[in-house]
Structure formats: structure tokens, C-alpha cells
Amino acid sequence: MTRVVVADDQPVVLQGFAAILGAAPDLEVVGAAPDGRVLLDLVARHAPDVAVVDIRMPVLDGIAATARISADHPATRVLVLTTFDLDEYVYDALRAGASGFLLKDVTAERLVEAVRMVADGSMLLGPSVTRRLVHDVTARTPEPVPVPGLDELTPRELETLRAVARGLSNAEIAAELWITEATVKSHVSEALRKLRCRDRVQLVIAAYESGLVGA
Q: Which domain holds residue 108?
């Protein structure tokens, strides 16, 4: 079972998210918090695999709470949900250590799958967030820049990197390249190691900065 805590200052939203996630057979909601301070207490008490966190909360906002969780409880991954897709929220959340970022208009099925992906170690960004991230990177780096380690990637790892940069999941990459998901994970791991990237978001940035893929 994947253990989850949920934090949102709107009671209806909090109860709704908890009910959706709790209904999944492989997820267990072990706590629900109305603010960031209670969230930190729940994380310390239950050591969940995933924390689903709203950005705008009283007492301690979601970004500050995410930073504390990342520093004090690195085994707990954070999935940020918000009604706002403004750039500063995206970058602040990712900088604080979030492993995923989705808007609250996400479907119930997508929310459950997002929690599973984050728990499995995948980096997850919604389509609109990815577009903004890519736009910002390409606007700042109109000309390709050298990315150390790029020339160490094998042809198959380069193909995988291009697919990651397009926002494809491991399953989608496996289907497109006619390889297994285990092989995709291996290629992604090698790309992370060779390019010295922390996560898939950094891989996306490296792919665009290097000119390997275009906007």
C-alpha cells in the first residue's frame, strides 16, 4: 500500500481528495490537514510515501511545507495541487523539492495515477506546466549551450531523452520505442547519471538547452 496524506484549507476539497485517493485499492490515506503546520505533524507521525499539498494554505503555505518535508523527510514525495498555474508557483514548488505539480481541475483518475507515479519515483508535471517550463527555458537560452555528459549518451538513451522532453511517461516511451518499461527506466537512470540531473524536469531542461529538441 502507498501511504498518503492530503493537505488543503478548503474542507470540501480536502474531503473530496481524501475520498478519491482512499477509494483506490492500492492507496491508504493516513491523514488530512487543513494547513501546512498540521501537515508537517502528520508527515512526522505517519511517514507517508506521498503528500498531496495545496499551495495556498494558512499558518504555513504549501511551498514552505514542501521545503520542510524535502529537508526533514526526504522519503516522502510531494505532489502539489493548486488552482493557479502562474510561473512563480511552478518554480517555487519545484525549487522546494516537489516531485509533481498538477492543477486542481485534474480528473479523479488522473489524480490517483499521479500519486502512483510520484510514489514510484517519477517526476510529474501537468501539460500546461510543462509548456510554461519549456517556454521559459527556451526564452532564456535562444542558442544551444553545451550540456556536459550529453555526448556520453547512447543512441537509445538519446531517443529516450527526447521522449522525456516531450513529456511522455515511461509507458508511453516504451510503446513508442518498442522496448519494455524496465528498459526505459534504465535509459532514464543512465541519462540522469551521465547528465548529472536530479530528476526528469532537469532532463527536460537539459534537452532544450542543448538544442537536442526544439520548442
A: 2-125
Cell numbers placing 143: 542558442
Model confidence, pTM:
0.70
Q: Which of 214, 99, 212 is nearest to 161 (CA)?
A: 212
Do the beta carbons of residue 78 and residue 6 sit within 8 Å? no
How does pLDDT run across 80-90, given as a tens digit for each residue? 987 766 656 77
Q: What is the pLDDT of residues 129-138, one digit of tens each?
A: 666 666 666 6
What CATH number is associated with residue 79?
3.40.50.2300
In whole angstroms, what is the distance from residue 7 CA to residue 69 CA? 13
Domain-terminating residue out of 125, 150, 183: 125
Beginning with the edge strand found earlier in the chain, give each strand of the sheet holding 77-82 in spatial order: 27-33, 2-7, 50-54, 77-82, 100-103, 124-125
